[in-house]
Amino acid sequence: STLFPYTTLFRSRAAxxxxxxxxxxxxxxxxxxxxxxxxxxxxxxxxxxxxRLAAFLHGQGRNGEAEPLFVEAVEIARGVRRxxxxxxxxxxRALGAFLLDEGRAKEAExxxxxxxxxxxxxxxxxxxxxxxxxxxxxxxHLAVGDPAQAVGVLAPAEPAFRAAYAGNNASxxxxxxxDLGQARTGVRHFNDAETNLLEAHALLAxxxxxxxxxxxxxxxxxxxxxxxxxxxxxAGHAKTAMLWRERAIGGE
Length: 252
Fold this sequence. Notes:
Strand content: under 5%
Structural class: mainly alpha
Number of strands: 0
Shape: globular
Number of helices: 13
């Protein structure tokens, strides 16, 4: 099920595309007010609306406003015993991802583990929502310095991720490959990491909306070649690392 009712989706996206963040926020807040008015607070429609507004505020850097909305969405989902619903599971994943982004890995871990296990059970291994939940779990492993666990989560999911996120969704594949490449760098699988990171950069670089992630891919490539140079001096990796570092700093 889509996370956005079409009317709210189009209005908020159109406002953002026009550079009107205030208009997008107004549309999302109006949607939440309608959901609260037309349904009890135990309705998963309200959960979806809370998550949409929370994600918007988080994207605007207004994390103090976003967090209580993420928390409320999970509380509603748990309160009505609907944690078997994909929308409810997504609210758990979203809160976990938010906490991880805030550097609160210990708080994020049980939520991200629960979301991944629940999506696997409810949606199956290859569903796009399951794959996103697995990516969130892998991001946790990377954040706490366990790249081997991240590879163990991401590598088996790569074929399904490629099938699910192709064409217009290629940037999602780029983000997945960025994490997989960084994880493989961490376990010294340099050739595989290089393949993943070069493809990630190629997928992310053309999109102006992913400029930060493109620079992250360039930095990841610089880190890869720096570490590879340490393992294999004289193979030319130091020079390649310097070139990618320059691209990361120079914004391509």
